Amino acid sequence: MPSYFAIFGKTPALSAAELFAVFEREKIEAKPARVSAAGMIFETSRSDLARPDLGRSDLDFWSQLGGAVKAGEIIWKGKPNAQSELQAFLNRDLRERVPAGRIEFGISNYPLESGTHQGLTSPRGQTLIGAALKKILAADGRSVRRVTSREKNLSAVTINKNKLLGPGVEYCLFSDRAMTFVGITSWVQDYEEFAFREFTRPRADAIAGLVPVKLARMLLNLAAVPRDSTILDPFCGSGTIAAEALALGQKQVIASDLEERAIKETRENIRWTLTDLQRLSKQTLKVPVRILQSPAEEIDRALAGERVDAIVTEPYLGPPLRGRERTDELQRTLNELQKIYEKSFAAFARLLAPGSPVVFIFPIYKKGAAELSINDLTGIENAGFRPDPLLPERFRHTPGFALTARGGIIYSRPDQLVHREILRFRRI
Ligand SMILES: C[S@@+](CC[C@H](N)C(=O)[O-])C[C@H]1O[C@@H](n2cnc3c(N)ncnc32)[C@H](O)[C@@H]1O
Hints:
alpha/beta, elongated, binds S-adenosylmethionine, 25% strand, Rossmann fold, 11 helices, VC0802-like, nine-stranded mixed beta sheet
């Protein structure tokens, strides 16, 4: 069975959860061999995951992800002390992959547990391997260049710039106490497209709060629903999640917000996104996005009995914080938010069939070293929902994964006063 690897982005627990959700949506039976903050190695009977990008109109497996930065196939595994075998393997493999002309290659390394950053997969080992490979190949008269960078590992930018997806080669080395794996990188994230949508869309209301585009993509994937299902964002703000749903190829999208300003911004951003996607796929996209103005607490009425298949939303997280608020003020805001959320879930219950998902963000307020959040989920459960853990139990305690006690995944930057906790629920 082929094995693959994915290297995770800045929020590894979320990247892992996204990958599990996409396995579910694509009905891919995947057996994780290693899950760590660096990434995941898994086996699957699917043999086509190493193929490069299939193009925009048909996103390939990897390009649909927001949380993976590199991926490829595992091509060798051995005991961590099998250093000469590894060296011989790389020497042979590189000659086969680049039979003639100049050889350009790079090596990145990812320890799978702490304390195993030694031997050939340590930075020093990596340098030694690279140097030895270069020497052997040069002695054979091959012109060879090893691509290095100031970063610890080669970034997607460096890989693209040096054409290491072909004709050049990048090897990723992984190791823990039991095993060393070698992967060959066959895909890197389309960081330019994400950045373009993030920074070029016409409306970005930073004060009302904006979900980063990659996070929007991950939230959508966590819903794990097919492309032709209807997705609703009832707190759409400037429409980032709805727009990203289009980029992901969703065919039915509904966006709604309480404020007229948000509706206007969403309309503008959606129009811009459709034009942008047209530029990329060179075909006219006619995805009717419905944009409604309604309080989320009454969204079922606004949809007049219509059903949706999934709700993916970053709700109102309270007024922007300055850091000077007293604990009792913060607590009061959280109590108000809890009421809005509970009423909204009661409306969601009337829109969703049993089993349908709600991917929802809860605020965590930072007050010095303390954290305040909405702890009581019984109102939401009583509205007809059960929490649906984002990660299988055995991976929740993976070092480097930021999870809350109830299994929510934290998405944050250290300087933020409001951290996001991502939770998924299912309609009972
Ligand atoms: C954090 S923003 C969402 C931002 C959005 N994810 C984006 O990236 O553009 C929350 C939005 O909820 C809206 N809102 C506040 N209370 C609401 C309610 N009760 N029902 C629906 N929308 C509400 C606000 O107008 C605001 O646009």
